[in-house]
Structure formats: C-alpha cells, structure tokens
Design goal:
The complex is a heterotrimer of chains A (108), B (116) and C (94).
Chain A lengths: L22 H10 L6 H17 L6 H12 L6 H7 L4 H9 L9
Helix pairs in contact in A: 1-5, 2-5
Chain B lengths: L2 E5 L8 H14 L4 E5 L21 H5 L2 H4 L3 E5 H6 L11 E4 L2 H6 L3 E4 L2
Chain C lengths: L3 E7 L6 H9 L5 E4 L19 E4 H6 L10 E3 L1 H10 E6 L1
Classes of the chains: A mainly alpha (108), B alpha/beta (116), C alpha/beta (94).
C-alpha cells in the first residue's frame, strides 16, 4: 500500500490548508484517535462539510454541534451520547478535525 | 423576555459585530432565549449576495444563516435604517422581521446588549 | 503627475462622525476614495454627494453585496488605488 504523505497540521492536529483534505486524509487523521471510520462517521463528516460550505464556519461549540446535527439529521443522531461514541473526546473538535474544518472557536 | 443583542456596527472592517454574533450563538447554545436587532449601519449585515473572497473574510451573510439552526429566536431590522441603506425585501436575507420601533423592542427584552 | 490636490481615503460608515469631517474637508481639485465600511455610503439614501471625483474599492463593494449601487463612484482595484495615491500631492486617511 502506498503511504500517504501527511499534510501540514497545527499543534492540535487541524489541517493548515483546508484544500489538503481528502477522504484518505480523513482516515489518516482519525487514526490519531484510534478511530476507524465507518458509514456512521462519514454521515457526520459529510454533514459537517456541507455545514461549512453553507455557513462558512464550524459549529462553534460542542452544544451547537449537537444542535446542528439534530436539526439536520434528527434526534437519533443529534444527541451527545451518539456523537461522543463516534468522536470521543470533545465530539465537535474531533469531528471537525477529521472533516478538515477549522477548529470550533469555543471548544476548550 | 430574553436577551436582545443589538448590532449597530457595519459588517467587516471591525470585529465588534462578529463578537456580538458569537455572544448570541453562545446564549443559544445554552438554550437562553436570544434575538438579534440590526440597526444603523448594522443593517448592512442583511444584504444578499455578499461575496467576500476578494477581502479574505468569512461572509457574515453565510454565518448569519446558521442563526436559526443554533436556536436564535428572531432577527429584527430597524425599518428606518433599512430605508436609509436601500434595503428592501428584494435584497435582504430571508427571515428578518422589520421593527418600526426599536426602543419598544428593547423594552420588551429583559436584557439588551450592544455590539462593541 | 500630481493632478489631485488631496486624496481623501475614507473607511468609516456614513454615520461615523469622521465621515462628516471628511465631507466638510473636500475642496475642488481633491478626490475621495471610499474603502471598507465607507463604501456603504453608495447604498445610503444620502449618497456620497460630493463635487469631487469619487472612487471606491471594488473588492469592498463586492464583499458587501453592493454591486448594484456602485453607479455613483468609479470602481478601482488595488493597483488603481496605488495609482491614485501617486497622483495626489497630499493624502488624508480618515
């Protein structure tokens, strides 16, 4: 298997250049957190990328991330336990990092 | 009844308005009722077809479109300021309520905070 | 060639006190360049109302969705803005 070159990232693992993002890079970033991406993850990643395109921002905090997912995909996915299981740590931060989005502004 | 964030600063060039928007989003994040009133030069936030690629800034028009998703209850625009800046239904973003009387609106909220 | 006496570069909204100060300072032979928030004057009812040539930075107009209201000013890009400053004997940045 060809080894992917890792593009430049900041000290928190977010891509320096959004254009570097590809699904393969996402897989690579996810492996930092020992996350193996399945279709549930991809659904959220695609949602986030669409959200960014429409609003030119990442959901600024974890609560607003959950709220936005709920608004778009319903209660089953838009709740913090579901998102925490998919994206451990601070879900908004982890998910945005994997989706190639900027760091959510209000996530500590 | 809830908090009213008043944005009376123009989009771009200064940060005060954007900080007020962040504040509104943070209140909404914690399910605190919040609405936004645009007045003075602030009504220019509401103009459609803002294309900010050349000035390398995020479009406030697009940022603002997340407000209903985050739970911001209402967006008001001072009718007089809209007239002054040539804003009408044809060039204003959707979902904005025109306020004929801003001071009355401010009195209806338990807390009002101005941008900047 | 310095054919402009004073180039007034204004970046404040029409309601900012300094916009009035700038308007009051305009003299024949001067030119007015609107940048940043000052381009909002082109959408305002009162308009830039000036007897001197009015220029405005195109990128700031496009950013604010004002392409339709820009008739009252000559649009300039960054190189043309630099050119304007070299044509002026004096420059005031308001």
């Amino acid at each position: 298997m060809k080894k992917l070159a890792i593009p430049a990232r900041n000290n928190e693992g977010f891509l320096e250049n959004a254009n570097d993002w590809t699904p393969e890079i996402a897989t690579l970033i996810a492996s930092d957190d020992s996350i193996e991406l399945d279709e549930k993850h991809w659904e959220i990643i695609e949602f986030l990328r669409l959200f960014y395109k429409e609003h030119e921002m990442s959901p600024p905090s974890n609560r607003l991330f959950v709220k936005s997912v709920k608004e778009a995909l319903g209660d089953e996915r838009g709740n913090s336990i579901y998102l925490m299981q998919l994206f451990p740590g601070t879900p908004a931060k982890t998910a945005c990092r994997i989706a190639g989005l900027p760091r959510p502004t209000n996530c500590l | 009844m809830g908090t009213l964030m008043v944005i009376d600063q123009p989009p771009y060039g200064i940060w005060a308005g954007r900080e007020a928007l962040d504040m509104a989003f943070s209140l909404a994040a914690f399910d605190q009722p919040v609405s936004i009133l645009f007045t003075g030069a602030g009504v220019n936030w509401l103009r459609t077809y803002q294309d900010t690629r050349e000035i390398n800034q995020k479009s406030v028009e697009k940022n603002l479109s997340a407000a209903p998703i985050f739970g911001v209850e209402a967006m008001y625009a001072c009718a007089r300021a809209c007239t002054q800046y040539g804003l009408g239904p044809e060039n204003m973003v959707d979902g904005v309520v025109l306020a004929e009387n801003s001071s009355e609106l401010i009195r209806q909220h338990s807390h009002t905070a101005f941008a900047g | 060639m310095t054919d402009i006496h004073t180039l007034h570069i204004l970046n404040k909204t029409p309601e900012h006190p300094r916009s009035k100060a700038c308007r009051d300072a305009l003299r024949p032979g001067d030119a007015l360049l609107l940048i940043e928030s000052a381009v909002l004057a082109l959408a305002a009812q009162s308009g830039p109302e000036s007897d001197v040539p009015v220029y405005a930075l195109a990128s700031d107009i496009v950013a604010r969705g004002l392409g339709q209201c820009a008739r009252e000013a000559s649009l300039v890009d960054f190189p043309a803005m630099v050119d304007l400053t070299t044509r002026a004997q004096n420059v005031i940045s308001w």
